[in-house]
Design goal:
EC 7.6.2.11; Transp-assoc_OB_typ2; six-stranded mixed β-sheet; PotA-like; Rossmann fold; OB fold (Dihydrolipoamide Acetyltransferase, E2P); cell membrane
Length: 371
Amino acid sequence: MSALLSDTADLAAGRQNVIQLVGVTKSYKSIGVLSPVDLDIRDGEFLTILGPSGSGKTTILRMIGGFTRPTAGKILLRGTDIAQVPIHKRPFNTVFQDYALFPHMTVARNVGYGLRIRKTPAGEIKRRVEAVLGTVNLGDKAGRYPAELSGGQRQRVALARAIVCEPQVILLDEPLAALDAELRRSMQEFLKELQRRICTTFVFITHDQEEAISMSDRIAVMDHGNLVQVGTPQEIYYNPKSEFVAKFFGENNILPAVASGLPPAPSIESPLGRHAATAGQHGELLLAIRPESLRLCDGSDLRSDERIASARLESITFLGASTQLSLSVGASGEHRVKVRVPTTLSTRSLAAGNDVMLRWSEADVSFLPRG
């Protein structure tokens, strides 16, 4: 095993890097579409690359898969640079949004296509195809044609075809985008369970934040060709590192804030009051806090890490099991925050114009650089 791979071992999770992007860029003529990207992809993990259209996420997937060559940088597979290695020599398989199934072939022949190209013996092909169709719950559809299957079944055929050659990494380019909402949720659960069962690294592309949260071990967030944050869903949700991530990844209240003062007691002023500052926080900042992290004071004692602020209730939106409140905060009430609370008898008795008190934990607040 290379020294590079050993040095980058993920000791905390017990996983090593199967793929590393090192300073990878992409330009088309004079137009840069991907700034230098450094990204580690761990053995056996479900990594999602998340971002809006045009953010560069599919460009990264295509470079890993070999469909596009990087302009600069290295793509390391267990320490060996494969940036110039052709597609058919990379131990990866790709599942596309349109499935790319052969309409004139049965399910079994579609799934076994890659094995036939590799000149695998017929008996071995039959055994492996039957096994993988069982894995994706399509054992009874081997003789069907793609046109005779539902969208979810065609997606599972595409997955089976990707799995059967036992690749080191499976690349998935927004494979659920064409499915309706109910089938999409079902396939999300199926995909994650499948990945856990076969213990293969999945690199998944999506622009859907909820999809990324529900499926991923880690998420890499892209914006305008830049990799802006990598972390677990919980880390990115509760500790965004930029205004873009705070706004793009779920709903967030964003408020202006200013850090001032000298040690040992620097502080941050915001429409929610005063907060303790930490090293490196100075000047103009942004405060981010999730709607569900703000609560109405219920008369119970505050914990040592909790803060309170006065607010005026501007509007109430009933959402069924939860209720969303819009409140004005700040000295002159010029700033708005959203609060999402469980619907109870007390929330049902609230009315616009009520003065209320908010409470929250300082641990739920993130301070971000402005701009």
